[in-house]
Amino acid sequence: MLIVFHSKSSAEVLMFGKHALPILRAAGKDFEGDELPERGVITRAQLPAAIAGIERAMSISKETEEHLETDDDNDDKVHPINEPVSFRRRAYPLLAMLRLANEKQEDVLWEPAPAW
After folding, report:
1. Domain count, the chain
2. Residue 71 lies in a domain
3. Poorest-pLDDT segment among 73-77, 90-94, 96-100, 103-107
4. Is 44 part of any domain?
5. How far is CA 36 from CA 16, 71, 93, in A?
6. At what angle do helices 47-66 and 17-26 cross, to 10 degrees?
7. From CA 49, how far away is CA 7, in angstroms rounded?
8. 61 against 70, higher pLDDT
9. What does the alpha-carbon distance between residue 30 and residue 10 come to, in Å, rounded to a whole number?
10. 54 near 23, Cβ under 8 Å?
11. Is 79 inside a domain boundary?
12. Domain for residue 2, yes or no?
């Protein structure tokens, strides 16, 4: 399911539900099972903790990425389109939205994306 995050102070953020789930869990949202609810909210009161949780998860992700061994002499380079997207890269647009919403004291909502 494709979902869209809304905030009055920033552009929308589109994300697949399966990719948003670990980010929202890092933000402190508790969900039963492996399904993201179709609709939800991060209230302005929850924003500071949500931001801190995502930043903490991103720093852990950064540490594990830095420890990956690289072989610069290897001529079998993987094209960037075939590389997996890291947690940090997936989370950054939503984190930016949360930071701005926190500055403006606004809620962040998510819902299913409209069909194109």
Report:
1. 1
2. no
3. 73-77
4. yes
5. 10, 38, 18
6. 110
7. 17
8. 61
9. 25
10. yes
11. no
12. no
Helix (H, G, I), strand (E, B) or coil at 85: coil
- For tokens 């990719």, the residue is 19
Greater confidence (74 vs 52) lies with 52
Number of Cβ within 10 Å of residue 5's Cβ equals 24
Is-contact 108 28, C-beta < 8 A? Answer: no
Asked if 102 contacts 9 with a C-beta cutoff of 8 angstroms, the reply is no
| Token pair in block for residue 74 | 């290897």
Cα–Cα distance between 51 and 33 in angstroms, integer? 23
User: Looking at the DSSP assignment, which residues form a beta bridge with residue 7?
Assistant: 10
Q: Which domain holds residue 57?
A: 9-64+84-110
Q: What is the pLDDT of residues 3-34, one digit of tens each?
A: 999 999 899 999 999 999 999 999 999 888 88
Show the tokens assigned to 109. Answer: 């909502």
